[in-house]
Batch of 3 targets.
Target 1
Amino acid sequence: MIYIEGTDGVGKTVTIEELKKHGIICLDRNKETISKNMLFSIPMEKRADVFENYFRNSNDIVIFLVNNNEDEMMRRVLSRDIVDRYDLETNKYNKLYVDTYNYMKERDLLHKKLYLVDCTDLSLEKQTNEVIRVIQDIDKNKK
């Protein structure tokens, strides 16, 4: 299974809806392993260990969507009908996703199962196309 992960406001839901139009089925967040451990209270080493163990023992693929345009992220979050405290920390969580990915990449812990797509200043179409490109690359490497 392919999971799309990222902070609130990054565009997970709309990207997943667009991917479905292309016949690509992805799930919004892996709540049992990834989302549950993307907390500031969990040390990076522990998070990376949990993720690396998960990737070693699973066929799942996880794609982190990130957007480093802080103003855009806050605009998206504040446009929602309901805004909670996690929403207001979207830029901090975005950085946590980036830092976690980089930490794992530097230590060769990705197992070709964790990917990052930088959606900064991309239109929905370009964001979706970039995710499709990553998924196609994954499929090519499996063959």
Target 2
Amino acid sequence: METIRAKVLDGARLSAGEALLLAEKGDLYDLGFLADTIRKRLHPEPVVTYVVDRNINYTDICISACKFCAFYKAPENAGGTVLSFEELGEKILETLELGGTQILLQGGLHPDKPLEFYEEMLRYIKETSGIHVHGFSPPEICHFAALAGLTVREVLVRLQKAGLDSIPGGGAEILADRVRTAAAPRKCSADQWIDVMAEAHGLGMRTTATMMFGHIETLAERLEHLLRLRELQDRTGGFTAFIPWPFQPANTAYADLPKASAFTYLKMLAWSRIVLDNFPNIQASWVTQGPKIAQISLFFGANDFGSTMIEENVVAAAGVSFRLSESEIRSLVKSAGFEPRQRTMDYTFVDR
């Protein structure tokens, strides 16, 4: 452990074995101290960023039926919906009026909508608002490609031409196929998720990466996830941020599993900051942890407060519904001793 601490403090990369040992043997304070050291090295100015945006779920109809999801509706469920373009436009207009710079556009894996539907959606958004579209996670891209009989790259080229600006890291869950086969067998594999991101980076699109932890995965599988992200970032440099957040079991097929504690979350957050030495930014998850733990996250490796989440449906469907306005986020950041700065998806500051 002393060797591992010395390596981290010297800015050296941990091997897989060292990283696993750190998670197993290091206590919360060990990891927090090391993560905070790295955060200060990468971001010496006491600035915490955030983005003003809205999560828009264009449909809750989904064929994936993931066991950890409380949001989806099966295609045969009469309660499933698809947003009209007019409804989408109203949500974007409200976002712009609130100072938003982007929308996070994601939805279920709809069995009947062709690729042209999503191209038309993007063109409508760009023609009516011009807002930055951070949309379509890798499982959606793989789904579009399968339905259209096209390669992932061909789908990405068409969506980019229609107006897609960047890609969110959703659908990663745990990038280990044992977990994915058990929890989401109809969703893209770990290799496919990585391939979508690699192709997007090759086309000049920036993306984020996420991890949903605290369900059926092992600590070694969490590490596999982190190392796969680190390796791709070494190759492409296309990831702007990493967002780890704990599984919310309520109203899911895994409702009997215990909910991850704040202790578990902070330790995982700090470990992520240490292992992902080539990721410039780590986001706190106030959406699942609430405002006070999110403040503490700023001393456990996080340098970003994430989104204002003008609208959020997926986590809320699992019974967790924290809400923060932009002014509340700025106040929380200031009271933690940092300067809040609004940013865009690529972490460019927004002048106020």
Target 3
Amino acid sequence: MKRFSPTLNDLSGRRFGHLVVIGRSEKRGNRGARTVPLWECICDCGNITYKATDALTNSDISMCNECAGKYASQKMRENAGFVEGTQISKLKYNSNLSTNSSGVRGVYYDRRSGKWRARLRFKGKLMDFGSYFSIDDAIKARKKAEESFFMEFLEIHKTK
């Protein structure tokens, strides 16, 4: 019994999401028990990728694998409440990790120096606000840094 195989329309030169189809390739992709022809495509980032026709029409995957990974990571960060590299919910609800020994987020005892340190992660960057013999001084430095960085940021993004 001969299988009927309709001729595919030529998609060369057409844009789908981040991809422009270069032409039909000799490669085939798996779809369950069958294989389907793949199109050679160039992504906006310059990478060459191979996609089946059904994958081209799905905007969530109409990009190379590298861009798809970045896109998925960006969406997860947005869904987790990240803005400019900072998770707003962590600013608003300043809870401690279970491993925190000082009782204050961003203040910890540095065994090597024998001092308390005050640090803060903001917009994806770790900032150090000094070492102190007194835990109270380290807490003051951390609180001052929070007021300086967080309050303005929360005002701008209209969350409190």
